[in-house]
Design goal:
heterodimer, A: alpha+beta, Alpha-Beta Plaits, 2 domains, 15-stranded mixed sheet, B: mainly beta, 13-stranded mixed sheet, 19 strands, elongated, disordered C terminus
Chain lengths: ~300, ~300
């Protein structure tokens, strides 16, 4: 299969369920909203090492936020519902509550919800106060700067994590250019995020390691420098650099849509090959075939 | 299609008509509606004795005529939409827990008293005890939203436990009397003794207010939650200005005779420096020739104590 001159490998991305939430952070300025959002979604690239995966979904105009201030929306994913609740409390508490002028709102209407503001209120040491407006409860937590406003409950859904595309090119420069183009295209998809830095992972992993303490290790089959060293390589001749984009979404559709846009953008930007990572169908129930994503 | 009940003529003595709510009349046949009981003074009567019934509808009911002597309209309603095309008597929407009650004229005393949910809109003004508490009850309004485009009488939000009361005009004396929580927004200003005996909750006003001496100034700031509330009121049809949305509010904590966990938020007009920025930071003096227990708070206040 070919797309804009790039070879599309006939394979599939193997995704799995993770629980997700959307956090809306507002602040006095777009810069401070972004600062809080970046802090909250920091160190959240892979659930293996970070207990959750998170990233900023997009920036929000004042007319898109509950309090009319500039903001960002971020998605956060964890392996189960309880884990999602814990990570939200930790991260909103440590990174948003502490950030100048911030407020934090649920951005997802869902049947299920987890308690966030109801836990963070205790920081108020008895001086916290709640407000119920249009059926939603908010907590006002007094802080030295003024007040931190946080919604009590955040919607939680069983989403889809681990969608991915793998971008191969002649060397680092065109590969990064193609990956950046793919990441930019994927950012336009609502309900999906790319948790790695800049949306791009240079270090895709395989499950397990020759060292027993490590649950994952470098994906040697896709390391160009090991092409002449490993028993089985997936790096075609002429390829000198490989990037991976991992995609988590609130549902299967945005993940598939993000992969489709990423494939098209990467191919157009100079990728020579495009493939996807899977574990032989043994890990996750969602198999997203690249051939189904082509125009 | 709308079910319309038209009052033939204003009764000599008040009619108590709790039956006039969507729960009872929507979807009912004309004969059933006409047979619903009302009280005319001490006499038991029927809806059909006073109202002409026309049209039909599942949840959209309209009342027409001069209903100033018709009480308890929409009281206890749980769903649907009821529109009163003019003025209405006392206790309109009292105890309602759902649906929307629209009064296109004025409403009498006790409108929305003991309300638990739903929305009450009044295009005109309302009497005393808006969303208030009935004698013997532990709390008044416990949920829902009341929006008044005119003025409100004394003791609006008395005993308020939860919910939102917003008044575009002026609110009379003792707003939020002994309120337990909830929010009162008075865009046109407050009368005397606002928040007397309040334990928790918020009273917001956009004009200088005469507060009791048992309220203590904290600071002037932009309360983050207020943006949500004022935007909500704008969506509900009140004329909230950008200055009110973006302005700074002086926070006075009280009532000191109770928990002092309530607050009165007073918009600064932007011309006067906040209490914090004034020299001296003095506690406001008790002023007023008629009531020495009052202090003038707000932009024209003589100072504030950021304690």
């Amino acid at each position: 299969m070919k797309l804009h001159g790039a070879e599309i490998v006939d394979t599939f991305a193997e995704a799995f369920p993770m629980w997700g939430a959307r956090v809306v952070i507002t602040a006095a300025t777009p810069g401070w909203a972004l600062e809080a959002g970046r802090s909250m979604t920091g160190f959240a690239t892979s659930v293996i090492g970070c207990k959750c995966e998170a990233s900023i979904e997009r920036e929000l105009d004042p007319d898109e936020t509950p309090d009319g201030r500039p903001g960002v929306s971020a998605l956060l994913f964890a392996m189960d519902r309880d884990g999602l609740a814990k990570r939200l409390v930790e991260r909103v508490g440590q990174c948003v509550l502490t950030s100048a002028t911030s407020a934090c709102f649920n951005g997802l209407d869902a049947e299920d919800a987890v308690d966030v503001g109801g836990q963070l209120r205790f920081f108020g040491d008895g001086y916290q106060a709640s407000k119920v407006l249009d059926g939603r409860r908010y907590w006002r937590v007094p802080v030295m700067e003024g007040e931190f406003l946080v919604e009590e409950r955040f919607g939680a859904v069983e989403g889809v994590a681990g969608g991915n595309i793998i971008i191969l090119a002649r060397d680092a420069e065109p590969a990064l250019r193609a990956a950046e183009a793919a990441a930019a295209a994927i950012r336009s998809v609502e309900g999906a995020i790319m948790p790695f830095p800049g949306g791009i992972a240079r270090s895709g992993s395989k499950i397990g390691s020759r060292y027993s303490s490590l649950p994952a290790s470098t994906n040697d089959a896709l390391c160009p420098t090991l092409r002449g060293q490993v028993e089985h390589t997936e790096v075609p001749p002429g390829v000198g650099c490989v990037f991976e984009i991992v995609i988590d979404g609130l549902a299967l559709q945005p993940v598939s849509e993000a992969m489709a846009r990423g494939l098209a953008a990467a191919a157009e930007a100079g990728a020579t090959h495009l493939t996807a990572g899977n574990y032989g169908g043994n890990l996750g129930p969602f198999h997203i075939h690249l051939r189904d994503l082509l125009p | 299609m709308t079910l319309t009940l038209t009052l033939r003529e204003q009764p000599v003595v008040p009619v108590e008509a709790e039956a006039l709510c969507p729960d009872r009349v929507a979807g009912a046949r004309r004969e059933e509606i006409e047979a619903l009981p009302v009280w005319h003074g001490k006499e038991r009567a029927r809806v059909g004795d006073f109202f002409a019934v026309s049209g039909a509808g599942d949840d959209d009911v309209r009342l027409e005529g001069d209903l100033r002597r018709v009480k308890h309209v929409g009281a206890g309603m749980t769903a649907g939409r009821l529109t009163i095309a003019g003025d209405v008597g006392m206790h309109a929407g009292a105890g309602m827990s759902g649906g929307e009650l629209h009064v296109e004229g004025d409403a009498g005393d006790w409108a929305g008293a003991g309300m638990r949910g739903g929305r009450l809109f009044v295009r005109g003004s309302v009497g005393r005890q808006l969303g208030g508490v009935y004698a013997g009850e532990r709390a008044g309004m416990r949920g829902g939203e009341i929006v008044v485009h005119g003025d409100a009488g004394a003791q609006a939000g008395a005993g308020l436990r939860r919910g939102l009361i917003a008044v575009a005009g002026r609110v009379g004396d003792a707003a939020g009397l002994r309120m337990l929580a909830g929010t009162i927004v008075a865009l046109g200003g407050l009368g005397a003794r606002a928040g007397a005996g309040m334990r928790r909750g918020t009273i917001v006003t956009m004009a200088p207010a005469a507060l009791l001496a048992t309220f203590v100034f904290s600071c002037a700031y932009r309360p983050p939650f207020l943006g949500l509330y004022l935007r909500r009121l704008r969506a509900l049809g009140l004329a909230v200005t950008d200055e009110q949305l973006e302005g700074r509010y002086a926070r006075w904590c009280g009532d000191g005779l109770e928990l002092r966990r309530g607050e009165v938020l007073i918009l600064e007009d932007g011309r006067s420096p906040s209490a914090l920025e004034r020299p001296g930071h003095q506690r406001p003096e008790a002023v007023g020739a008629n009531d020495r227990h009052h202090q003038i708070a707000g932009p024209d206040a003589p100072g504030g104590n950021p304690s």
